[in-house]
Automatic annotation (TrEMBL):
Domain of life: Eukaryota
InterPro entries xrefs: CRAL-TRIO_dom, CRAL-TRIO_dom_sf, CRAL/TRIO_N_dom, CRAL/TRIO_N_dom_sf
Protein's name according to its UniProt entry: Clavesin-1
Cellular compartments per GO CC: membrane
Gene3D superfamilies found in the cross-reference section: Alpha-tocopherol transfer (1.20.5.1200), CRAL-TRIO lipid binding domain (3.40.525.10), N-terminal domain of phosphatidylinositol transfer protein sec14p (1.10.8.20)
High-level lineage: Eukaryota, Metazoa, Ecdysozoa, Arthropoda, Chelicerata
The organism of origin for this protein: Trichonephila inaurata madagascariensis
């Protein structure tokens, strides 16, 4: 059994967002929480590939092992559920191809510089990556909804290449302070359904907690619609904060920005975005050979 009790472990290390490997402790965590063993990985990948070949929606697609592993991990090696989510992902990509193509670093980087969507540079002690969304910084006139969709595809799918994120999932902090004149008209049923369906049913991400700060009219309108479609499990993981100070019940101060009371001076991840949006990395985004036939 893995153990991170401060009584038995002298130091609880805070890991960086970018790692590229899974430390021994988190390998044990994957075994306990996700039922992951070398045998399960081998068998799961083999079964997933067989199902891909037999299904009419995926039979002409060729997925990398690393990509299939994300779906096995998020569904704790339940092969049926993992394949169902993979198929939902493939169908979504076919249905809205514009969101998975025509990526431009010059456009997407504005989300980082304007602090609209940010991966924070440090993880929670339990290994979760932290995504910060600051709605009030989004200007639909300069960054249209379609570019927002592309940005989320890049941010989520490229972050999922990290084994630490696959195993430990993410915590989201969503600052919903908003100008309803700018944002409310974009809270359409179609856009809100895409958020629900894409995030919960297609993207192989483990959502550990969602923290809502600075409630707004725009968010209340969107939450009224979206909440009805979210799983009960996910709804229970949504926490509302009247003040950012209560975020520290869930996060150490060291990992949060100063304007939320934390100690983080800077969290601009432009260098990370530049790396993951290189032509080589974008060419293998979301499964490596999704558009190639066998």
């Amino acid at each position: 059994m893995y153990d991170r009790n401060p009584v038995t472990a002298e130091v609880v290390e805070i890991f960086p967002f970018e790692m590229g490997y899974l430390p021994e402790y988190f390998q044990k965590k994957a075994e306990v929480e996700l039922h992951e063993t070398p045998e399960e990985i081998t068998q799961g990948l083999r079964q997933m590939k067989e199902m891909v070949k037999k299904d009419k929606h995926t039979k002409n697609l060729n997925f990398d092992d690393d990509f299939l592993l994300q779906f096995l991990r998020v569904r704790k090696y339940n092969i049926t559920k993992a394949f169902s989510q993979l198929k939902s992902y493939a169908m979504l990509r076919k249905r809205i191809p514009d969101s998975f193509t025509n990526f431009r670093f010059e456009a997407t980087v504005s989300t980082v510089k304007d602090r609209t969507i940010s991966w924070l540079p440090w993880r929670c002690p339990e290994g979760c990556a932290i995504i910060l969304i600051e709605l009030d910084n989004w200007d639909p006139e300069t960054f249209p909804v379609q570019e927002v969709k592309r940005a989320f595809v890049v941010f989520l799918l490229q972050a999922l290449r990290e084994p630490m994120t696959q195993v430990n999932g993410i915590k989201a902090i969503i600052d919903v302070k908003s100008n309803p004149i700018k944002h409310l008209r974009h809270a359409t049923p179609n856009n809100l359904y895409l958020i629900y369906h894409g995030i919960q049913e297609c993207c192989p991400m483990r959502y550990k907690q969602v923290h809502i700060v600075n409630d707004s009219i725009t968010f209340r309108a969107a939450w009224y619609i979206v909440k009805r479609f979210l799983s009960e499990k996910l709804v229970k993981r949504v926490h509302f904060h009247k003040t950012p100070e209560t975020l520290f019940n869930y996060f150490p101060r060291a990992v949060l920005p100063k304007h939320y009371g934390g100690n983080l001076e800077s969290y601009e991840m432009t260098d990370w975005l530049k790396r993951v949006m290189s032509p080589e990395r974008l060419a293998t985004l979301g499964g490596a050979e999704l558009n190639k036939t066998h």
